[in-house]
Write a structure and sequence with these properties.
Helices cover about 95% and strands about 0% of the residues. By secondary structure, the chain is an all-alpha fold. The relative contact order is 0.10.
Amino acid sequence: MAAADTVKKSVEQATAAGNQAFKEGVDKSLNALTEANTLGKKNIEAAVESVTAATRGAEALSAQALAFSKKSWEDGVNAAQALASAKSVQEVIELQTAYAKTAMEAYLAEVTKATDTLSASVKDSFKPINERTTAIVERIQSAR
């Protein structure tokens, strides 16, 4: 009988250890799936935030381009009217030179403004992605 009790006790211990190991394995798997789901959700949120920032940047650039085009058109009309009312060839040359200089300065200022807007937009667009990448790299390094 003692041998049977020993075998029974061994089987019960093995069963209990197996059940515990199985439970721990399931718990670890569920935790890993939950964490993967959370990471995936945060990555999607970062992508949406990135696209939203890029859209805002494109809208800002569009608005700037439209405003510049309108102002350039108005300046061109005013310059044409001034040229039409010029009294001499010398005055035409002076008006045309002044208009060309002003137009070039306005164009260069607009290019600088557009470059600044584009640069800020790219920075804002990549910020959420960079933050997620940093978080993932830190997570991987801490898991080592």
